[in-house]
Specification:
The protein is an alpha/beta fold. The protein has a single domain, classed as Aldolase class I (TIM Barrel, Alpha-Beta Barrel). It has helices at residues 10-17, 29-38, 45-58, 72-85, 97-108, 121-129, 139-144, 149-162, 177-186, 195-202, 205-221, and strands spanning 2-6, 24-26, 63-66, 89-94, 113-118, 134-137, 168-171, 190-193. The model has no long low-confidence stretch (mean pLDDT 96). Bound molecules: erythose-4-phosphate. GO terms for molecular function: aldehyde-lyase activity; transaldolase activity.
């Protein structure tokens, strides 16, 4: 399972990219808005494009950028603009009727699409049939409503395999390291993680204690 960062923050991307384990980035309007608000900056089209270009240069791999139009015509126009920014850009579309129409049209033009806000296997089936390269089921948000995000992911992964569909499954809305383990065991192709969860993956108190003990023992005999 590949690991993506779910962020629009360049420092976070550069930090994790330096670990050598980062395969891509996903953004969404909330993450982009947070990024620009934190800088006190107003969001302009040029500013957004420059920022997405910088993200593409900071990571080797796909970078999902989401449209904000709600109608297929608007999504296609926005998707074309986003895709033209950089070859690594994948256009993210919501899983709605209009999103399906836009997905079909953009994929026919050779634009890679990530269908987002997937909460059921049937939505995933529709998105895959519309030609999506990626499907993003949201684990955490399903768990938030006391349903089972892992079960939704399990059905989607199995369905993609049984139906021999080509879409890759991105486990999204990851809240904690157990979600990552669960997604990997269930066979997700990719998990997209917030920066904090990426850091948590690596941390273990026994690693810190073990390293401190090794160094203390070494100090006692060091030549
Ligand atoms: C997926 O690509 C989304 O950006 C993301 O995972 C949403 O997660 P959230 O529920 O933490 O906002």
């Amino acid at each position: 399972m590949e690991l993506y960062l779910d962020t629009a923050n360049l420092e976070e991307i550069r930090e994790i990219a330096a670990w050598g384990v980062l395969s891509g980035v996903t953004t969404n309007p909330t993450l982009v808005a947070k990024e620009f608000a934190a800088r006190g900056g107003q969001l302009s089209r040029e500013g957004l494009e420059a920022h997405l270009r910088a993200i593409c240069e900071a990571v080797e791999g796909p970078v999902s950028a989401e449209v904000t139009a709600l109608d297929a015509e608007g999504m296609v126009a926005e998707g074309r603009r986003l895709a033209a920014i950089h070859p690594q850009i994948v256009v993210k579309l919501p899983t709605t009727e209009e999103g399906l129409k836009a997905c079909k049209r953009l994929t026919a033009e050779g634009v890679r699409v990530n269908m987002t806000l997937v909460f059921s296997a049937n939505q995933a089936l529709l998105a895959a049939r519309a030609g999506a390269a990626y499907l993003s089921p949201f684990l955490g948000r399903v768990d938030d409503i006391s349903w089972d995000g892992g079960e939704v992911l399990r059905e989607i992964v199995e369905m993609i395999q049984v139906q021999d569909l080509s879409a890759k499954v991105i486990a999204a809305s990851i809240r904690h390291p157990r979600h990552v383990t669960e997604a990997a065991l269930l066979g997700a192709d990719i998990a997209t993680l917030p920066h904090a969860v990426f850091k948590q993956l690596l941390k273990h108190p026994l690693t810190d204690i073990g390293l401190a003990r090794f160094l203390a023992d070494w100090e006692r005999v060091r030549p």
